[in-house]
Amino acid sequence: KQQVMEQTPDPAVRAMLAHLEAQGVETLFDRFDAQKPQCGYGLAGTCCRHCNMGPCRITEKSPRGVCGADADVIVARNLLRWMAAGVSAHGARGREVMLALKAAAEGRFSRPIAGVEKVRAVARSFGIDDKGEEGNVTLEQLAGRIADRLLEDLSRTVPGPHGTLAAMAPPERIERWRELGILPISAYHEVFEALHRTGTGTDGDWRNLMTHLLRCGLAFAWSSVVGSAIAMDSLYGPPVRQRIAANFGALKAESVNIAIHGHSPVMASAIVQAAESPELVARARALGADGIRLYGICCSGLSSMYRYGAVHPLSNAVGAELILGTGALDLWVADMQDVLPGIMNVAECFHTIVVTTSDSCRLPGAVHIAFAADHGNLDQADEMAHRIVAMAVENFPRRQAANVFIPETSIDAEIGFSVENILADFGGAAALAEHLQTGRIRGIVNLVGCNNPKVVYEKAIKDVADVLLSKDILVLTNGCASFPLLKLGYCLPEALEKAGPGLQAALAGKGLPPVWHMGECLDNARASGLFRALADALGRPLPQMPFAFASPEWSNEKGLGAALSFRLMGLNSYHCVPAPVFGSDKVRRFLEEETEALLGSVMVVVADPGQLGERIATDLEERRNQLGL
Ligand code: SF4
Ligand code: FE2
């Protein structure tokens, strides 16, 4: 923690950590210190608790578990279970939106379908006739068919082609995946099978387990991520490019303050709407506030921000407690994922009401307002959101000014980048691809992922970005890793100063920042869409292109899935924090070397962020050489 307090790059975070330390409020960073030293078996991936003959751990004296599983099998099984959890996490969130899209299509949801262009474009990709025999297929009917297709790909049990993958993935990749025998049936099936084969006495072949890891990676990419992203853009519409104030200083003591935390846009969108209610705004004013203000924590905050504006990005999941520590939040609404239980310890020190809305994600001490497609109450989203915002307003007078501490640091950021609006800016993929061809832009890196107290909070992301930009590598970002880039000015056109002369020339006169913020973690789909469009424009397969994925500070199961899904596309993934695979030379070599022949990509781990950035740049140059660029 001491190191974080001294070295984390955002001065507001440093100020807040010092404040909470002085107040004696425990945070994630204290708990990380308390966990040290961390279990060596866990770090190496060589402990197993899959059955009750164990737990077993692999040592020189006992190289096999009770059942006979060796280090390779145990490491592979553990990794596969993480992967399955990642597929479920993004998939569960996507399912909610797919069901909401279906409900909207059938008139059971209060929101109109906002993504008119998206629905039509997806229908065309899916080969769904948007004319109809009599030329009268409605937008709702198209959206309903898309929702059915996405849900079917998510949950199919009878073997059959994965429709989204077949329609959207590059043909060269599909062929490769077919040869490897890893085309998925559905997300549900591959998760089911992952739990099956990692169970006691089932798959004892580490390599076969790795094959299923790859299969899960494809289910992750094409159902959990792309499927979910299609549903979101279809229902809620595309991102809107805009400028927004970020960081602690955007938090106004005069307002009723509500944080939106989690991942599903369904409740978050309803909250944004409710916060505009004239009745609630009037009530807030009557109670002495100047209005109602919304803030984004983690991903649902980011996706609300780029659709509706006025949701100020404050922090990723790991820093959530620091935002609560301001004492200035009147209500904190959380739906699902990356809502770390520790937030309650800090919330309890203040008047802040925490509201949970998903039955999958409850916290003792929080008010639970159960909302989900499973409750059949999607049509009540607006009414529930109204109730939640009203609770915030009524809680405002309970805030104690003496307890409020808000670091002043604030900065604007350009947000809302999508494949569509980027290509429109450049007048098509070919024009942007030309910058790659001429070498003004040396490569493009999707710099994303979570945070992890194993490295200095937010510093690895910043350090990697600095190296990449200086070497004329364009950066895309989303999710938790995007917060330091938002907060430290990387998402402003002025940040072009940090870039080398080539990148500066490529973006000059466009008013664009050198880091393009694409939204929340699920918006990896936008990055892969842009990569695909540029590869197609140059007529080259993705594994040859100077693109990469980097998640220097990754920590959770979805992060594992994200990195793997880009490797499946043929792009290397780069990290400062290693995966727990050191206990098995075979599994490690598979991920770090052997997938080069299978997928055209590998996992690269370099602990030092500056060196990781250098390594990415070197590898991209190597790809350029191979391409003859
Ligand atoms: Fe031990 Fe095997 Fe049971 Fe794992 S599955 S706990 S290695 S006996
Ligand atoms: Fe996320």
Quick gist of this model?
With 629 residues, the protein is α/β, with parallel strands linked by helices.
Helix/strand class: alpha/beta
Instruction: Give me the CATH architecture of the largest domain, please.
Output: 3-Layer(aba) Sandwich
Which molecules other than protein and nucleic acid are bound?
A: iron/sulfur cluster, fe (ii) ion
Q: What is the residue-mean pLDDT, rounded to a whole number?
A: 97
Q: How much helix is in the residues?
A: 40-55%
N-end to C-end Cα span:
45 Å
Main sheet properties: 6 strands, parallel
CATH class of the largest domain: Alpha Beta
Shape: globular
Write the layout of secondary structure elements.
Layout: H1 2-7, H2 11-23, H3 28-34, H4 40-44, E1 47-48, E2 56-57, H5 71-105, H6 116-125, H7 139-155, H8 163-168, H9 171-180, H10 187-197, H11 206-236, E3 242-246, E4 256-262, H12 265-274, H13 278-286, E5 292-297, H14 298-308, E6 311-315, H15 320-324, E7 331-334, H16 343-347, E8 353-356, E9 367-368, H17 381-395, E10 411-415, H18 419-426, H19 429-438, E11 443-447, H20 459-470, E12 473-477, H21 482-487, H22 501-507, E13 515-517, H23 524-538, E14 547-550, H24 557-568, E15 573-575, H25 585-599, E16 603-605, H26 609-627
Parallel strand pairs: 4-5, 4-7, 5-6, 7-8, 8-9, 11-12, 11-14, 12-13, 14-15, 15-16
Antiparallel strand pairs: 1-2, 3-10
This protein binds iron/sulfur cluster and fe (ii) ion.
The site of fe (ii) ion (FE2) has 7 residues, from helix 14.
